[in-house]
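hiii, so i know i said id send this last week but things got crazy w the move. better late than never?? heres the sequnce for the chain we talked about at the cafe, plus the structure i predicted for it. fair warning i was half asleep when i ran it
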Amino acid sequence: MHFCGPKQGIISLVLTMPIIFTILGFPLGHDQYAYSQSSETNPTVKAAAMGVDLTNIHPSPSHSKAGSKFEILATVVNNSPSTIMFVAGACHSPLSAFFKSFNVVIRHTQGCTATSPPFKLKPGEQVSVAGPSSGTIYQAVKAGQTPATATLYYQTENGQPANVTKPFVFTIS
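okay and structure toks below
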């Protein structure tokens, strides 16, 4: 059996530590940019610190009650290196929600048909948006915790369709 002397053990440790820190320093499973996909395929896009993100997602009014109608508000943060564009106006919203419980029903009615010019959000900027679009109604039907996902549909600077989806939870009283 062979044992290292104290000097060889210290040298081995000094040589091994940079390798360990290099391996542990690489993030595993983290995305740097939001990925875009065609609207004909899977629309889910991962958001990351360097991409488009949704923050401060909540219903309006903030204290939704069973039987009431509400909309979803969110802040869009453009941490990507490019300008993004989305529809925004009285008739159209780039923001929609999917509710993962039976606390909310989505109703569709006749909406307005006016067109809205695209809204441009430059890198580093943020803006609040409301959804859904005209003709879609979110109605609370049952009290309780309501898990949901909000999705923002937008276009990249080169015109490619993209989206970012983020989960949120709110309470219906």
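btw Strands lie at 52-60, 69-78, 84-87, 95-99, 104-108, 118-121, 126-131, 136-140, 144-155, 161-172. thought thatd interest u
miss u guys!!
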